[in-house]
Specification:
Layout lengths: L1 H23 L9 H11 L6 H48 L8
Helix pairs in contact: 1-3, 2-3
């Protein structure tokens, strides 16, 4: 379960990063002059352009979605493995009790 717990930690970290990255998209230019405004549009977005920080938010959201799906699949796989192991143990117990308690050698 180590890999599953590690993936859950990464998912939590990415979730927190989304909020922080979204704050960057709300950045305002430091001065009311053309160079600052132009840089701000490139970095934080504006006029229909998501800007570098906006693209970053999108990437983090996609990473979060990927890790979330990975966790779901790991949980499904671990559950199936656990169920399969339980079924095998039950089958072995049934087999053992039906033929006198074990395998017979010929």
């Amino acid at each position: 379960m180590g890999m599953l717990n590690q993936a859950k930690g990464i998912r939590d970290d990415l979730w927190a990063m989304i909020f922080d990255a979204e704050q960057l998209t709300k950045m305002k230019p430091p001065a009311d002059e053309p160079a600052s405004k132009a840089f701000n549009v490139l970095a934080a977005g504006g006029g229909g352009n998501p800007g570098a920080f906006g693209y970053g938010v999108g990437h983090i959201k996609r990473e979060h979605g990927y890790v979330d799906e990975l966790i779901k699949r790991l949980e499904d796989a671990l559950h199936l493995t656990h169920s399969s192991d339980e079924n095998a143990a039950t089958d072995m117990n049934k087999t053992g009790s039906s033929n006198g308690g074990g395998f017979k050698r010929s």
